[in-house]
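@channel sequence for tomorrow's demo:
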Amino acid sequence: MRMPWLKDKAKPSAALARPPSTISIFAAFFAAIVSFLLSAAYAEHRASAIDATAVSIAQNATPSLMYLSAARAELRRNQALLGDYVNDAVLGRPVGRREVDQGLEQLSRYVDAYLVLPPYPGEHERWRTVAQDLAKLNQDVGRVLSLVESGHPNAANTIADDDLRRDFDHTSEALMASVEFNARQANRIALEIAANRAHSRRIAMGLSGVSVAFTVLACAAAVIQIRRQMKQLWSHGLLLERRAEELEHFAGRVAHDVLSPLGTVAFALD
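structure tokens (generated this afternoon):
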């Protein structure tokens, strides 16, 4: 007897024979994850660079400006104190160099605090000029103080009005040049931070867009695979239903073919 359902079973449909491919889904999700990790790593790297430049402003440029400005102000204060000291000596008034010595010590403390800070490129050359002017200033201040203490206030006044005044002016100008240099460095670093933030924002947005694109592709591939699987399941259900109907017809035919001879045999036996 011909059994078509066995023949159909021997040749499954192509849709059922081909398993659904998930490589595209995994590839898209993997690319999305990699893009996200790259975006996070790049953002962290740029944030570290921005933090380093911000620290440079907070711990180098700003303190440099503060100490240099304080040193310049203290320099002018020392000039006034020393002028009063020499004038009092010329006029025969009682003099005391305690305030002058304290002012010079304070100026030295400001300068030392500035020198311990890390220098910017080109700052050593500028500070060399300041150091030379300070050395000349200290030398002339020592001469003036020695002349006053040795009883030669007029000679001290001559040096104070000529050499010492020039020393104070040159040192003040050199300090001001260093102040302007550090101000330019702070401005440059601030502009660099702004540029780095804008560049990092663009790169991060681009990587985030790539991550979103790969995620959308992965979702689309997953939807396509789910629809294909549902279609295959529906086709398989129809095939099973058709096989069940064919099996039922076959069972009825077999029962009829078997029962007919048995009925004849039973009748004969009766």
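heads up for whoever presents: The helical segments are 4-9, 14-17, 23-90, 98-115, 123-149, 153-269.
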